């Protein structure tokens, strides 16, 4: 006897409960008819999409959820459907997993462990459940769990004690670089603790800055991975579980053994980051119904990588690159930008900004009289470019893609209302040294970024012979200091204790991070890549008197 389980790794639209409901119905029928599944399992909060945030506080949430559940109950038969949704029970809102079969809700479970750290705010919305959720599915006692539950031993041990023979875990677990390996180690440990197989079903898609890469998988009771769905690919992934009925004669518990199935190959760090950027940008553009993307192409490495991601996300025919040269723009930059555009096949425009900058300068001359030249004039160039891009955006319905990386945004090496202008940034959480690696990775898929763009010293080209490292430490040093400070929360003295950096550099970098919080608050959203990105992860006050040191 067997139990066929289909894991539905889907991309939902947050808030569109009606559309998500129909997608669940269509997918369940497909799993029943095409996959011959006994049960189809959807991710956490499938009905609302994830994360719904303060949509959970809307007065009509309850009626919309109840209507959605009634529709699924009425239209799906002959397959067990396990879905996630928010539901108010006894006046209290829970994060629930429910099992529907033959027009009835035959079992329901409320998430017990509510994460309230980094990007998670579960305690803002939900109360924690306390009871195990055990449902009979084709004679198998199935223990239900939701996302964070699996990171703690108690909920799974409770399910085991209540008679569970198999664990199904619904997830909306967001991507960051280390997350894939962490999940596999975790499930290996958890399965061995309870001596039960676990199916881990993950959300797939992107919501604002968060990316969910799918990668649903199954481990047996020994913690060995026996099935792995692809990452960054929506679809239905089915595994067959063998039910040892002879075990039932000796014990009240059946032995469930998942049969070995296909295992998608692991991704390199560069491949996973690149795919996360592509998925994040694609979903942002499509779900917000932008016609296309426009970006400033400088001939530098950041805009080159951003352009490649844009083309891979939505196609060259919907992307426009604009070179906006000024007096300090080198002939090399002009040549390289043109080559990048040709290699990727996008529409390419050259719009010189000298006359516009001159016009601004002439108008401002009376105000500037008596003052010497400084970064004001450099920022004026960047802001002229920002105005130009936003005008194209307004006229054509294209979203402006900003191109600044995490290293620059961390220390404020960007112009507010200039090169920070835009709706989205794929490099927002990507340190500069990783930018170089990603360019080399992208060229292995097809040569689109000229070698000289990767190898020549980075420059904003806002002043004669300007180089980034005239204003900043070398990027290998800068990135490591930033990583320790931003992602590991190490103090200046703790960073100095590593004996890798000099005191002046460390204190200068940390000061730049702190005083530029106001800029980051006004920066566009972008793909979260690391375990501690700017935005939802890191919430520091703009106005504060904290002293750098210990």
TrEMBL record:
GO MF annotations in UniProt: NAD+ synthase (glutamine-hydrolyzing) activity
Protein name as annotated: Glutamine-dependent NAD(+) synthetase
Function: Catalyzes the ATP-dependent amidation of deamido-NAD to form NAD. Uses L-glutamine as a nitrogen source.
Pathway assignment: Cofactor biosynthesis; NAD(+) biosynthesis; NAD(+) from deamido-NAD(+) (L-Gln route): step 1/1
Presence of keyword Ligase: yes
Residues in CN hydrolase domain copies: 3-243
PANTHER family to which the protein is assigned, alphabetical: GLUTAMINE-DEPENDENT NAD(+) SYNTHETASE, NH 3 /GLUTAMINE-DEPENDENT NAD + SYNTHETASE
Organism phylogeny: Bacteria, Pseudomonadati, Pseudomonadota, Gammaproteobacteria, Oceanospirillales
Positions that bind L-glutamine: 173, 179
């Amino acid at each position: 006897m067997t139990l066929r389980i289909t894991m539905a790794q889907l991309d939902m639209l947050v808030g569109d409960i009606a559309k998500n409901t129909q997608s669940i119905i269509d997918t369940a029928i497909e799993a029943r008819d095409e996959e011959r599944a006994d049960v189809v399992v959807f991710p956490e909060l499938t009905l609302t999409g994830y994360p719904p945030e303060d949509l959970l506080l809307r007065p009509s949430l309850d009626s919309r959820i109840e209507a959605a559940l009634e529709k699924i109950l009425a239209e799906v038969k002959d397959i067990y459907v396990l879905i996630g949704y928010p539901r108010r029970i006894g006046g209290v809102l829970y994060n629930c997993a429910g099992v529907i079969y033959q027009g009835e809700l035959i079992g329901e479970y409320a998430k017990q462990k509510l994460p309230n750290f980094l990007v998670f705010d579960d305690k803002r919305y939900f109360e924690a459940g306390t009871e195990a959720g055990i449902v009979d599915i084709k004679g198998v006692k199935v223990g239900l769990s939701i996302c964070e539950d699996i990171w703690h031993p108690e909920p799974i041990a409770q399910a085991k004690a209540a008679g569970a023979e198999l664990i199904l875990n619904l997830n909306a677990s967001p991507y960051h670089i280390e997350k894939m390996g962490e999940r596999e180690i975790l499930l290996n440990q958890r399965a061995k603790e309870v001596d039960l197989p676990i199916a881990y079903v993950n959300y797939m898609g992107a919501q604002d800055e968060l990316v969910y890469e799918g990668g649903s998988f199954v481990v047996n009771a020994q913690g060995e991975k026996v099935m792995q769905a692809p990452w960054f690919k929506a679809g239905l992934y089915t595994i067959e579980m063998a039910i040892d009925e002879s075990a039932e004669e000796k014990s009240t518990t059946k032995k469930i053994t998942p049969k070995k199935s296909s295992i998608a190959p692991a991704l390199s760090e560069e491949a996973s980051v690149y795919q996360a950027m592509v998925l994040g940008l694609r979903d942002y553009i499509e779900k917000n119904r932008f016609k296309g993307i426009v970006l400033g192409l400088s001939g530098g490495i950041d805009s080159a990588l951003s352009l490649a991601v844009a083309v891979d996300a939505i196609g060259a025919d919907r992307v426009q690159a604009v070179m906006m040269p000024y007096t300090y723009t080198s002939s090399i930059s002009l040549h390289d930008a043109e080559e990048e555009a040709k290699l990727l096949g996008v529409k390419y425009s050259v719009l010189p900004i000298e006359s516009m900058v001159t016009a601004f300068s002439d108008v401002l001359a009376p105000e500037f009289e008596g003052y010497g030249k400084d970064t004001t004039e450099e920022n004026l160039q960047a802001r002229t470019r920002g105005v130009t891009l936003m005008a194209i955006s307004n006229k054509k319905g294209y979203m402006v893609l900003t191109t600044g990386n995490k290293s620059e945004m961390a220390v404020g090496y960007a112009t507010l209302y200039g090169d920070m202008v835009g709706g989205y940034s794929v490099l927002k959480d990507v340190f500069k040294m990783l930018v170089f690696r990603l360019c080399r990775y992208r060229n292995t898929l097809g040569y689109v970024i000229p070698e000289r763009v990767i190898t020549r010293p980075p420059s904003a080209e806002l002043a004669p012979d300007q180089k980034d490292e005239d204003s900043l430490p070398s990027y290998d040093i800068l990135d490591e200091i930033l990583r320790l400070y931003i992602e590991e929360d190490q103090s200046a003295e703790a960073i100095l204790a590593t004996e890798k950096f000099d005191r002046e550099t460390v204190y200068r970098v940390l000061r730049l991070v702190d005083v530029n919080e106001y800029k980051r608050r006004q920066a566009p959203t972008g793909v979260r890549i690391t375990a501690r990105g700017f935005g939802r992860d890191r919430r520091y006050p703009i106005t504060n008197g904290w002293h750098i040191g210990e």
